[in-house]
Specification:
- The chain has 145 residues and is an alpha/beta fold.
- The protein has one domain (3-144): DNA polymerase III subunit chi (Rossmann fold), CATH 3.40.50.
- Helix content is 37%, strand content 24%.
- It has five helices and seven strands, in the order βαβαβαβββαβα.
- The protein has helices at 13-26, 37-48, 65-70, 114-129, 139-144; strands spanning 3-10, 31-34, 58-60, 73-76, 88-91, 105-111, 134-138.
- Strands 3-4-2-5-6-1-7 form a seven-stranded parallel β-sheet, sandwiched between helices.
- α3 links the parallel β3 and β4.
- α1 packs across α2.
- It is globular.
């Protein structure tokens, strides 16, 4: 069963996802990031702006299948653009992603915005109703310590 985790309280979702991707790729994970087109573009730009030491190999969802297979991270606007052998799905969407259960792990990143938090609550309930246990990471507690 897919491991579901919510990372709550990200003051800047794009910056947080870039840090999360560096960590995940550093541990050898293959990751798909699902977001709207504007957010995908922002993440792509921020990943290209990283220092050469921190660079995260990535491509977009419209890249060739070979490029997707070779990239550590694939940025998609539709889950169908994802390469089949992905371990982790990072979701920045308002609703439960289609086919999330084909991934080993799902990470939902939630900002401090109240609308975003309300959407997250509905997704949380949907996962619970489907029988998933959820791991919660409160980023506001981490930044306070």
């Amino acid at each position: 069963m897919t491991e579901v985790a919510f990372h709550f309280g990200a003051p800047d979702k794009v910056a947080y996802v870039c840090r999360l991707l560096r960590k995940a790729v550093g541990s050898g994970a293959k990751v798909v990031v699902l977001a709207d087109a504007e957010t995908v573009q922002l993440i792509d730009s921020d990943l290209w702006a990283l220092s050469p030491v921190d660079f995260v190999g990535h491509c977009g969802g419209t890249a060739t299948s070979t490029m997707k297979e070779l990239s550590s991270v694939v940025l998609v606007t539709e889950i169908q653009q994802a390469f089949a052998n992905r371990q982790v799905l990072v979701s920045l969407t308002e609703s439960v992603p289609e086919e999330f259960d084909t991934f080993d792990r799902l990470i939902e990143v939630v900002s401090v915005d109240e609308t975003d938090r309300n959407h997250a609550r509905r997704r949380w309930k949907s996962y619970i109703d489907r029988g998933y246990s959820i791991t919660r990471h409160d980023l506001t507690l981490k930044s306070a310590s």
